[in-house]
Design a protein that fits this description.
This protein has one domain: Trypsin-like serine proteases (Thrombin, subunit H), CATH 2.40.10. Helix content is about 10%, strand content about 30%. Strand 13 and strand 14 form a beta hairpin. The chain has a six-stranded antiparallel β-barrel with strand order 10-11-12-15-14-13. By secondary structure, it is mainly beta.
């Protein structure tokens, strides 16, 4: 089994220099578009999805996009903690002079929407880089986004977290599992899976391992639909509520290796 990887690293670090290849190449995955096995989605259908951007760090080809995020309050965006790590940013978040979120824009090359500066960051102090447990961070924006961009966070006892629930994952990440990145927003339909599915795929060892108390398992039992590199921090939504953030996994769209998401209702502090 391939070592599980956080799903920002290939997409982010592979864009630092023009023509640079990704750090790790995922095996081929069945896909007809993006997020692997997904479909084009207009931002008006999911206004709470944002792209994290730094052109200084990642270049202008994809408007500096390196991770995803989700608006949970007019000045608050959730993303994956590993998106703010030194391995991705090359330093601390505050050292990125042009760290922004791109909101209200379907295409990274398009016009419209807003680019709002990130004025503060909070990384979950319980985040464990070794196991990926608690993979959540909160960005504070310098300017408020419209209330219509905000999505409700599910409660810990929400039925939307139950195995079998239909869900959707959103992002601008890898389209094929082979380093082909999207310019326009995509979504993929998946299902919440029993914890046992990810426990089997990601057994305890020296590295990342699935923990049902802080993680959520989701994917397609037959494979072909999944988040992938570059989608980290993007939302997993069920019943119109946020239930997860793209965190990590092994490969993309493989039936035996479902996607692992941060269990937002459990990990998110009551006050942000």
């Amino acid at each position: 089994m391939r070592r599980p990887i956080a799903r920002a690293l290939t997409g982010a670090l592979g864009l630092i220099a023009a023509g640079a290849g990704p750090l790790a190449t995922a095996p081929p995955a069945a896909a007809d578009s993006v997020v692997v096995g997904g479909q084009p989605t207009r931002i008006t259908e999911a206004p709470w999805v944002v792209a994290l951007s730094s052109r200084d760090r990642f270049g202008g080809t994809r408007a500096g996009q390196f991770c995803g995020g989700v608006v949970v309050a007019p000045t608050k965006v959730l993303t994956a903690a590993h998106c703010l790590g030194r391995e991705v940013l090359g330093g601390e978040p505050w050292q990125l002079s042009d760290f922004t979120v791109i909101a209200g824009r379907t295409s990274l090359r398009g016009r419209g929407g807003q680019e709002v500066r990130v004025s503060g960051t909070w990384v979950n102090p319980a985040y464990d880089r070794r196991t990926n447990s608690g993979d959540l961070a909160v960005l504070t924006l310098a300017k408020a986004l419209p209330e219509s961009y905000v999505i409700e966070v599910a409660r810990p006892d929400d039925a939307a977290l139950s195995p079998g629930t239909a869900a959707a994952v959103y992002g601008w990440g890898d389209t094929t599992g082979k380093g082909t990145y999207a310019m326009s927003l995509r979504s993929a339909r998946v299902r919440v899976l029993p914890d046992e599915a990810c426990e089997r795929a990601y057994q305890s060892g020296s590295g990342a391992a699935y923990r049902g108390d802080t993680m959520l398992c989701a994917g397609d039992p037959e494979g072909g639909r999944d988040a992938c590199q570059g989608d980290s921090g993007g939302p997993l939504v069920a019943g119109g509520r946020l239930i997860g953030l793209v965190s990590w996994g092994s490969g993309c769209g493989q039936p035996e290796n479902p996607g692992v998401y941060t269990r937002v209702p459990t990990v998110l502090p009551s006050r942000i």
